[in-house]
Specification:
Elements lengths: L1 E2 L7 H14 L4 H8 L3 H8 L7 H10 L5 H7 L11 H8 L3 E6 L10 H9 L7 H14 L10 E7 H5 L5 H15 L4 E6 L13 E5 L5 E7 L2 E5 L4 H15 L3 H13 L2
Parallel strand pairs: 2-3, 3-4
Antiparallel strand pairs: 1-7, 2-5, 5-6, 6-7
Helix pairs in contact: 2-3, 4-5, 7-8, 10-12
Length: 270
Amino acid sequence: MHSSGRGGSNAEMFGKMLRFFRERAGLSQEALGLKIGYSKSQVAMVERGQRPPRDEFIAEADCALGAQGALKAAGEGLTFGYLASWFEPFAEEEITASARHEYETHVVPGMLQTDGYARTVLGSGYPPVDDDKVEGRVAARLARQRLLFRKPVPDIGFVLELAALTRPIGGRRVHKEQLDHILEVGALRHVQVQVMSPRRQTHAGLSGPFVLLETKERRQLAYVEVQDHNFLVSEQPALGNLFGKYGILRAQALSPEESRDVIEQVAKDL
């Protein structure tokens, strides 16, 4: 089990590559921004490795600069300074994982969050951080969601407490958009979203949320976070206990079909 820390990222290397192709094309930061629909300051922050580029940024820049796929390729494995150094190995394994499962208690998992929901969650932490850092963390979180739509498809599962779905984070519009997004992702053939019945008197996950990962080599990892304290779990018996616990949670939760009905009703009642 490893505790949290900080470190660098390859976002700076991506920024240097972007600058190389931009200067080779004879474009200023402002001119590139105009061509791809971003501001000069956004281009500058990406080049300095201070802001993760969104998927559209990478694709548009690659095309506008004639990079012939080089920027797209570099963006595939991009990790960011907004991720702790100890978490980067987990995030890198996540990109190519064969399976990912999560139990969450009080907030919609980051892997399912919409832009508006993520911005509210990440902007409400303590101590407060500046807007650029919030935007960077939002972009990094949304970029990790590529796993949901990756080919070959991974096995994805969520077990959610009803409280995570009913709290109106971001207000009514953001909340409704978030629930609709969960239903959309849950309809994917390789994704299972289950709700833990609030009528259960007890269940196996009362000690808190966690994330499980099975790498493409079928190696198992787990991630646990509580009040800004984060841990990677890679050793037995703690790792096996978490995987066993999730199996019980899936059996104790409502079925995906029943869960969909519950989420649809929550959205309808807004």
